[in-house]
Amino acid sequence: MSNELLQFVLFLVAVSAGWLAGYWYRPRTENKDADASSSYYKGLNYLLSEQPDAAVMTVINELPVNLETLPTHLALGNLMRTKGEVDGAIRIHQNLLSRPSLPRGKLHQVHLELARDYISAGVLDRAERLLKDVVDESEVLRGDALEHLQHIYQSEREWEQAIAVALRRLPPRNWLKKAPAGRGDRRIECALSHFYCEKAQKFLAEHNFKDANTVLQSARQYDRDNVRAYMLSATIALKQHKPELALDLLHTVVDRQAVFSSEVLPLFREAFDSFGGREAYLDALQRIAKMTESSAFFIEAAELMRAKGDANSALQYLLTATRQRPTLGLVSTVLDQPEAGTGPALELVHDIVLKLRAERPSYRCRQCGFSGRKLHWLCPSCEQWGTITPIRGTQGD
Ligand SMILES: [Zn+2]
């Protein structure tokens, strides 16, 4: 049995058990109850036999709308949405809204469900309107509605609005006595930090460095470990001809998050290029390589030695590094050295190593395990910000 089917069956069992419990322990004098139960099972049967239209008609025409039957309507509507029958879910939820008999609190719940339907259907403007109403009118459901709104603005790349919503979701800050953020709050702060980075990127593209720097300060304030914010600040520093400042920022990244060393290497190179100090660059590379054990830094240092005409030192340096950290990158660089020699056996090994390198993913999500060859700040699989990091170890940097 597939996982999805199993979940579906478990859901049915839970719903039926809940309903039956309510059914058996209630006085069975009203015929209305019997009618409600039969239309509920009829609806479920139609759903199970892949006849969603018939299921919708049964629920709308035969199941009365009142406080007792509301959970059943909602359960069937949500079931339809999770099964991908979004139109059916929308009709069931709209039917509930057309009945004036429900109290306001329950109507807000239906609004929220209908907004979820619209999100699933990709009709985001309608979902947005419903969610804004829920935020304004329901204290109980405000948190859920704001979370959905943040998601909508994020997918529409409306960063200004995404920031406003994320700030509303955070508890008020006490700057004098900073309480440790809860897990949920940490996620919001991390997302917020990336929203500011997105704005910074826009400013950067317009060469508006002043505003870019301002939003990057906010990005670092909400997540002091956000590598992307440091990299963007360093990029701006380089554009403003401030290589020392750029190097400070880049050193912060390698000190705090060595796993991102390979990502900041190109910016290091650029900063030292504007200094013009090759010796200083080689020193810095060797120091950082020793500290972070990053293959990319070992390789860059060896290439610099070779460029200076010191091929033997480059080879010895690479061999020591490879013994210490036998990564595919280092092994293939050793095999690339002319001193490594030639011959069919060596060429074969070289080919295999290159193939292994080309096939391996370079980045993986800590949260869901998604892997790929491109660094995404927002995981395309689990949609969390800042969870994807370069892969470390034999297969990686
Ligand atoms: Zn993920």
Brief descriptors of the model:
mainly alpha; 3 strands; 70% helix; binds zinc ion; cell membrane; metal-binding; Lipopolysaccharide assembly protein B
Q: What order do the helices and strands come in, and which of them pair?
A:
Elements: H1 3-24, H2 31-48, H3 52-62, H4 70-82, H5 86-97, H6 104-121, H7 124-137, H8 142-155, H9 159-169, H10 183-205, H11 209-222, H12 227-239, H13 243-256, H14 261-275, H15 278-292, H16 295-307, H17 311-324, H18 328-336, H19 344-359, E1 363-365, E2 371-372, E3 388-390
Antiparallel strand pairs: 1-2, 1-3
The structure holds zinc ion.
How is this structure best described in words?
- Its main location: membrane.
- It holds the Pfam family TPR_19.
- It comes from Zhongshania guokunii.
- With about 400 residues, the chain is an all-alpha fold.
- Among the domains are: about 30-165, Tetratricopeptide repeat domain (Serine Threonine Protein Phosphatase 5, Tetratricopeptide repeat, Alpha Horseshoe); about 360-395, no CATH class.
- The protein is about 70% helix and about 0% strand.
- It contains 19 helices and three strands.
- It has a three-stranded antiparallel beta sheet with strand order 2-1-3, with no helix packed on it.
- A hairpin with a 5-residue loop joins strand 1 and strand 2 (about 370).
- The protein is elongated and about 90 Å long.
- It starts with a helix and ends in a 7-residue tail after the last strand.
- Bound molecules: zinc ion (ZN).
- Zinc ion binds near residues 381, 382 and 384.
